[in-house]
């Protein structure tokens, strides 16, 4: 059941590097991360790679396999032809640190820019009541394991470094959507306008809904259809729809 | 310490290379390493859309062979100019008047065209297929600058929901046209030909596509914070969501069906084919 | 000492899992400046692997539940060896800790009336586990992470700096807790990314580093679980208690080999899954021990009725505490009634409709589909025991989480010992993290605040130099014959030895052999060498972690050899019965070389000394929660009469 497979693994750091060739044994049922570990234990003890749970739950081992953003631990070797050379590179939207490890601090910086959940002032701990149908949407987004594959594949920042300033990326726009759909979030009462923020602070308008984030999501979250487009529609309510705007003006006057 | 959660500011200075070749990123000469046929999908999309554009341009400007009683081509309904052929009981309203000399299709096609042009699926399709922005996931786009839908003209994509309202009107009229297919050429009820079926299939797909629209999903229920307080809208949102999951398939199916319906009417109207009658 | 970066904080938390983050939040909310150090990226901690839920007697599903019932279940699960005060605090405070998470944005599954839904789990009398499908740990970590971000946003508004009072040093490893006299003065560590060393001066250090599973071959734990906190505490002069109790989760994946050990959540059984052997028999009915006979169903029919009518039926024996189920599976496999890949069958496909399985167990469905090509809605899973949790840990004061004997050192979560006794109930881990994480943070903050008026302990340059020399040793390592040892090979040998000799079923002779092998490995680990440089070098990291794993493994083996009975997570083939006299005895490990200075090249490798320690008698009112007959199974006659 075992065979010798050919691999190309990017090795190097911020100063440069290249694809190194390896030949390594692959056994039945293994995933790419197993192979990387075998390389570490044999041919390349100092090969840098991030990983943790090895079960697709922590989102640490993000990399690009044959040019596609994937989790190393959830990519089975059986999807490749034994004769095929498998190429593993670090994520290509973020600064490289060493080998397969990249600097993902962009994502942590963006996470901080999203205003947090605002607890409703009138409810204490234990008094929250929410119906399951009202939290389903939010729960889908909270499945996110923050592997940042969506952030990595999104051409807005992958192909345009300069957009990193203005664009939060799919993961954190989804976080805005999550909070905007949370049944008890009291942001509005606290003077935080999440929809306006989505447009003005987090760069929702940069998204051209080409769905690569959804394609690469290992949790199969429908990022585009369920988070980004609904958020765009909410922003239309807030900023671009004269009828809704007029309606809310009239209602506010009545109240 | 460099291990906080703050990004380190990239060293300023010489102009950095773009995108994946930016100086801070892993040094890999190839713009991408995808070994699969990633170009197939955008190529097919572009070819399909192009074919439709060519066909519809020809038919829209033709201004002829669009009515073969009792069938009217979906490209020409409703007819808003005076220069239409007479359609018995059909949506033939000369609202625009007689000064319009071009094909009457042009007046009405703006609406379905706008609906599809601003549709969230078609946007993906043509951004990828025609504009290569991006051509496929993790394949670099050729453009130097990118501002997405933040500026004119693409910021206008936000009007999608208005085109949706018009699309509902148009779909209503096409439904009416399909119902008229149950009358014979003389206006007597109790007729059904192959054309009736074609129009019915087309309008079913048009409705499915129209209702599966993301704006529709939002208007119907998506904008609510608490579904539990609006059980009827929640149920409707559930239905629209189920359709919405097939939005791409419906977009293509209805695009093909509309062309097929038009072509069928063209064949019958030009006399190249005679409509088989079932009863 | 120009090379080593130094910073000063009030409280340092080592570990950013549930306990560490909860401690950090508490310390920061007490107004202190708190640094969190973690080996992985922020938000990737092993807590994300927790699936089933958080045990808390909120009584949302069954109104009969309360903290006393939870306390009882916890003590029974731990076979009465638990530190009863910890079990009491845990049961009392767990609901508040869960509700608090909601105010920070956690979104649990709901009951029809909108409260937090609770599910059944092994050893819990009522449905008690607050959950989010089968990804509760992820929800917990994300919520705490987002709470930290929200505190940082507050600081940003106030000071213009997100990290003014709460900073996460991610991808850093601590190799030494530093001391000044007897008191904690800070930590020494390295950045994984750059290999640079750093010192954080702080009077209070909270250890929240999790467990030791990476010393075993088949484990559900990630690479981080190398017993760092256990070893740091030992080296700092603290003591480890109950180290012989290692929980083998009954259901880990057994196939394919690369995923062997990955957890299959207990919720599968809580929601109706059953265990069968190769004869198709539900064998668990044959393995109900006497102490649990009255609590569990005697027939399949009764067990099945329980899911819908829990008040009039007893629960199926698949839901016995984990140690019982793990031993039963082990016995079935040994008797030749195992599945093709050496496990048993766990089946939900015949018990629930496919849609319900996908809804209730989404990540299990996903995990088996993607990793093993098994569709759990249509076929049974193959499962077997996997090393999951260590009940033992740093001996702490139950109320303050302060490590006994080392002022300024605190421990919470899996690295702390005592709370779970000889066996932990599922769901009690996440609640443990929150309850004692908060307490550790609170008391660490109070302790650190006391240095506002008096001089704080000082980090000595000499200690830093020694710690640095110790950390750099693998780069200069050479054997007498010139060849350095490969740390990966050493690690594999260690795992193999611990699994084979100090695993789920133990014998005196094998454990003596294990101790012998450990001393050999220890000598060779001194020669573990690495290639390359210090920047993100996993070989080097492993070489350093080996010290911790060897130290902790020795504690486990020594304590296991000493305890001549079988109880909870400690099963002796040569002493199969539970002995009431052993209940009052805690086995405590400490470093044999009392000088806990980070000195001499080999001080870390010094042997461990074991002591017996009498447990505190259980408080009268807590004993009164149990029936006399039940107590008689655990307590000696002498304890009962006094």
From TrEMBL, chain A:
Q: Which Gene3D superfamilies match?
A: 3.10.20.30, Alpha-helical ferredoxin (1.10.1060.10)
CDD domains, alphabetically? fer2 (cd00207)
Domain named 2Fe-2S ferredoxin-type: residues:
5-92
- Cofactor(s), by name: [3Fe-4S] cluster; [4Fe-4S] cluster; [2Fe-2S] cluster
Keywords of this entry: 2Fe-2S, 4Fe-4S, Iron, Iron-sulfur, Metal-binding, Oxidoreductase
| UniProt key word Oxidoreductase | yes
The entry's family comment says: Belongs to the succinate dehydrogenase/fumarate reductase iron-sulfur protein family.
Pathway assigned in UniProt: Carbohydrate metabolism; tricarboxylic acid cycle
User: What name has this protein been given in UniProt?
Assistant: Succinate dehydrogenase/fumarate reductase iron-sulfur subunit
- Organism listed in the record: Streptomyces ehimensis
Tree of life domain: Bacteria
């Amino acid at each position: 059941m075992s065979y010798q497979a050919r691999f190309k693994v990017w090795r190097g750091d911020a100063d440069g590097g290249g694809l190194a060739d390896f030949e390594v044994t692959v056994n039945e049922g293994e995933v790419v991360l197993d192979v990387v570990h075998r390389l570490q234990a044999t041919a390349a003890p100092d090969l840098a790679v991030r990983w943790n749970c090895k079960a697709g739950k922590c989102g640490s081992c993000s990399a690009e396999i044959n040019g596609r953003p994937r989790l190393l631990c959830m990519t089975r070797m059986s999807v490749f032809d034994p004769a095929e050379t498998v190429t593993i590179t670090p994520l290509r939207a973020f600064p490289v640190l060493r080998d397969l490890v990249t600097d993902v601090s962009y994502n942590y910086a963006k996470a901080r820019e999203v205003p947090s959940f605002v607890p409703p002032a009138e409810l204490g701990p234990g008094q929250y009541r929410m119906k399951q149908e009202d939290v389903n949407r939010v729960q889908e987004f909270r499945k996110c394991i923050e592997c940042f594959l969506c952030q990595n594949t999104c051409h807005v920042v992958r192909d345009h470094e300069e957009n990193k300033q203005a664009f939060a990326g799919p993961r954190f726009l989804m976080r805005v959507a999550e909070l905007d759909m949370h049944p008890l979030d009291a942001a509005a009462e606290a003077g935080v306008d999440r929809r306006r923020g989505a447009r003005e602070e987090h760069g929702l308008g940069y998204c051209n809904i080409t769905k690569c984030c959804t394609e690469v999501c290992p949790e199969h979250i429908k990022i585009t259809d369920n988070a980004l487009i609904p958020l765009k529609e909410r922003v239309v309510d807030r900023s671009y729809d004269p009828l809704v705007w007029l309606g809310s003006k009239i209602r506010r006057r009545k109240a | 310490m460099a291990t906080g959660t703050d990004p380190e500011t990239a060293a300023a200075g010489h102009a950095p290379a773009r995108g994946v070749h930016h100086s801070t990123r892993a040094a890999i000469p190839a713009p991408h390493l995808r070994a699969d046929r990633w170009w197939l999908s955008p190529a097919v999309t572009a070819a399909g859309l192009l074919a439709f554009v060519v066909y519809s341009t020809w038919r829209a400007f033709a201004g002829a062979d669009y009515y073969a009683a009792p069938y009217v081509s979906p490209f020409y309904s409703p007819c808003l100019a005076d220069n239409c052929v007479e359609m018995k009981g059909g949506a033939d309203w000369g609202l625009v008047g007689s000064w319009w000399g071009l094909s009457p299709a042009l007046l009405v096609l703006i609406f379905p065209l706008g609906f599809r042009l601003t549709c969230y699926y078609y946007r993906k399709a043509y951004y990828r297929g025609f504009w290569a922005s991006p051509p496929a996931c993790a394949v670099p786009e050729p453009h130097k600058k990118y501002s997405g839908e933040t500026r004119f003209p693409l910021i206008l994509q936000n009007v999608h929901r208005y085109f949706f309202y018009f699309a509902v009107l148009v779909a209503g009229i096409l439904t009416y046209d399909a119902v008229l297919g149950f009358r014979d050429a003389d206006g007597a009820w109790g007729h059904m030909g192959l054309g009736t079926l074609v129009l019915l299939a087309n309008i079913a797909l048009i409705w499915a596509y129209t209702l599966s629209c993301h704006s529709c999903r939002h208007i119907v229920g998506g904008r609510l914070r608490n579904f539990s307080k609006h059980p009827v809208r929640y149920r409707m949102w559930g239905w629209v969501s189920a359709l919405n999951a097939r939005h791409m398939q419906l977009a293509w199916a209805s695009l093909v069906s509309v062309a097929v319906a038009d072509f069928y009417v063209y064949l019958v109207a030009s006399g190249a084919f005679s409509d088989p009658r079932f009863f | 000492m120009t090379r080593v970066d130094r910073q000063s904080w009030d409280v340092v938390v080592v570990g950013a899992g549930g306990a560490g983050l909860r401690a950090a939040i508490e310390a920061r909310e007490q107004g202190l400046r708190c640094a969190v150090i973690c080996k992985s990226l922020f938000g990737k901690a092993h807590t994300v692997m927790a699936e089933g839920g958080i045990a808390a007697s909120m009584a949302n599903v069954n109104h009969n539940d309360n903290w006393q019932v939870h306390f009882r279940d916890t003590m029974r699960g731990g076979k009465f060896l638990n530190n009863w005060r910890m079990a009491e605090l845990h049961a009392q405070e767990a609901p508040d800790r869960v509700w608090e998470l909601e105010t920070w944005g956690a979104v649990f599954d709901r009951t029809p009336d909108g409260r937090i839904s609770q599910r059944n789990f092994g050893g819990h009398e009522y449905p008690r586990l607050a959950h989010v499908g089968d990804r509760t740990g992820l929800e917990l970590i994300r919520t705490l992470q987002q709470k930290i971000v929200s505190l940082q946003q507050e600081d940003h508004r106030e000071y213009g700096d997100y990290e003014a009072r709460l900073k996460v040093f991610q991808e850093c490893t601590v190799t030494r807790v530093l001391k000044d006299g007897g008191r904690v003065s800070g930590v020494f560590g390295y950045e994984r990314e750059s290999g640079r060393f750093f010192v954080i001066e702080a009077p209070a250090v909270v250890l929240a580093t999790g467990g030791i599973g990476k010393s075993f071959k088949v484990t559900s734990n990630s690479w981080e679980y190398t017993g760092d906190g256990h070893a740091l505490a030992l080296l700092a002069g603290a003591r480890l208690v109950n180290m012989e109790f290692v929980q083998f989760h009954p259901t880990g994946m057994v196939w394919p080999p690369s995923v062997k050990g990955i957890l299959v959540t207990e919720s599968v059984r809580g929601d109706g899954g059953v265990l069968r052997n190769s004869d198709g028999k539900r064998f668990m009915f044959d393995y109900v021990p006497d102490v649990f006979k009255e609590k569990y169903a005697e027939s399949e029919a009764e067990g099945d009725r329980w899911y819908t009518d829990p008040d009039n039926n007893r629960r199926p024996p698949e839901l016995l505490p984990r140690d019982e189920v793990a031993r039963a599976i082990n016995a079935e496999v040994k008797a030749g009634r195992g599945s093709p890949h050496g496990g048993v069958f766990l089946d939900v496909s015949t018990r629930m409709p496919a849609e319900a399985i996908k809804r209730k167990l989404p990540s299990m469905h996903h995990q088996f589909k993607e990793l093993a090509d098994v569709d759990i809605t249509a076929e049974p899973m193959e499962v077997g025991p996997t090393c999951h949790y260590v009940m033992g840990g740093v001996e702490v004061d139950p109320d303050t989480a302060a490590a006994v004997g080392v002022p300024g050192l605190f421990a919470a979560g899996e690295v702390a010992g005592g709370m779970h006794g000889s066996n932990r109930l599922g769901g009690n881990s996440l609640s443990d993290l929150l309850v004692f994480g908060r307490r550790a943070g609170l008391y660490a903050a109070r302790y650190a605040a006391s240095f506002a008026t008096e001089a704080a302990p000082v980090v000595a340059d000499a200690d830093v130099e020694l710690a640095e020399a110790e950390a750099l040793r693998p780069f200069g390592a050479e054997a007498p014959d010139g060849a350095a040892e490969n740390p990966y090979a050493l690690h594999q040998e260690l795992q193999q030895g611990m699994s084979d000799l100090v695993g789920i079923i133990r014998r005196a002779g094998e454990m003596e052999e294990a101790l012998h092998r450990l001393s050999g490995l220890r000598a060779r680990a001194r020669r573990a060498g690495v290639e390359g440089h210090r920047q993100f070098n996993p070989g080097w990291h492993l070489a350093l972690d080996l010290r911790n794993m060897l130290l902790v493994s020795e504690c486990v083996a020594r304590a296991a050899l000493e305890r001549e009975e079988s109880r909870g997570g400690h099963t002796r083939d040569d002493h199969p019965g539970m002995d009431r006299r052993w209940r009052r005895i805690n086995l405590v490990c400490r470093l044999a070389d009392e000088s806990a200075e980070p000195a001499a090249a080999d001080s870390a490798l010094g042997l461990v000394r074991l002591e017996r320690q009498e447990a505190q008698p259980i408080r009268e009112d807590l004993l009164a929660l149990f029936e006399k007959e039940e107590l008689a199974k655990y307590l000696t006659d002498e304890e009962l009469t006094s």
